[in-house]
Amino acid sequence: QVHLVESGGGLVEPGASLRLSCLVSGDTTCISAMGWYRQAPGKEREMVATISMSDKPYVADFVRGRFTISRDKEKNTTYLQMNSLKPEDTAVYFCFLGGSWGQGTQVTVSS
Q1: Nearest to 26 by CA among 8, 43, 5, 9
Q2: Interval 95-101 mean pLDDT
């Protein structure tokens, strides 16, 4: 079983940056890609970025150029660097790995 804990969310103004972290614990064997998803109020959860076990990243079109995903295998942590944040980025951000979800971290972008 895999346990995921996100952190790093908060309230920021438009144009600011945040770095989200997802700490992974438990049995990570037979795990493939890890993903970051988000869910805004009244909307469905959507995929933001993924990173493969070989560290190949993929970032969704709507955040490409502003968000990057990376991983520190020694720290069992995956990161989502978010730059030039916009109000429409406001959502709860979740990490996903091997069928398990974290509890989410709230990101609010507002002036």
Answers
A1: 5
A2: 90
Task: Name the token pair of 66.
Answer: 């502003």
Classified as helix, coil or strand, 74 is helix
User: For 23-50, what is each residue's pLDDT tens digit?
Assistant: 998 876 656 789 999 999 999 999 999 9
Residue 27: what pLDDT? Answer: 76
Q: Which long-range contacts (C-beta less than 8 Å, at least 24 apart) are formed by 16-19? A: 16/85, 16/109, 17/81, 17/82, 17/83, 17/84, 17/85, 18/82, 18/85, 18/107, 19/79, 19/80, 19/81, 19/82
